[in-house]
Every structure is written in C-alpha cells, then in structure tokens.
C-alpha cells in the first residue's frame, strides 16, 4: 500500500493489494497501469450518444494489467478492473460505458473472464473523456475507502 505523500508509480510499475470481489473471494492482485492512449475529438464524439457531451474532450483509455498472485480462484465477473480511473489536470474524467467503449485490441472484457487463477494476468481497459488540452494525465486505482495507487503519464 502506498501512503499519502509517496511519489506516483511509473508506467508499468506495480502495486499489490488484496481485493474483495463481488463473489466473496479476496485474491491478491498485482496492479500496473501500462499506458494511457489519448484519442481524437472525432473519436470522443463517436463514443457518446449526444455529441455535445464530447465538446472539447478526447478519449483517454487506461490500460491496466492485473495479475492474480494468490488466493482463491475468481470464478466469474471480476470487478477489480472497474476501479481504475483517469484524471486530467487533477480532475477525474467522465467514464464512458456501454458497447466496447473504444476498447483497444488486446484488452479483455471482464464479463467474459472465467476461473481467474493465481499466476494469470489480464489487461483491462477503461475509457474516460478528458479535456483535449489537458497537461497532465494520471491513472488512479483504489477500492472504496482504500489508499490509491497512482501512475503519472
């Protein structure tokens, strides 16, 4: 666990934490934000039903690698990937949900993961809309009430 005041993690650097899944099991995961892909304004408009919601925004896709390092097998629907968020200039982006939400090739769909065992890794991705002119981008992963892992890109 990282405490307040510690510097952010570098891209690809991992932190480890036990995480209680909705199914009741509590495996330990190694969590490492790999990269953030920043898209275009046109891509942002294609991700929302109302183009006005994307005005001045671009998609930022956080790609985070999760490795199950110990604990019970996660039989289905792991939620650990739901807790990664993208921040731009210190403010949380607007999460894009539904469809493939711009999921890049190589990113797993957590709803399709079954029997996730110790030693197995998945790349899970979350898409957020951020200001097109953002100067700094961070990925933050934290569970409710937990200390965050923060990566700066």
From TrEMBL:
Taxonomic lineage from the root: Bacteria, Bacillati, Actinomycetota, Actinomycetes, Kitasatosporales
Region (Disordered): 1-22
Organism superkingdom: Bacteria
Organism whose genome encodes this protein: Streptomyces rugosispiralis
Name of the protein: Lipoprotein
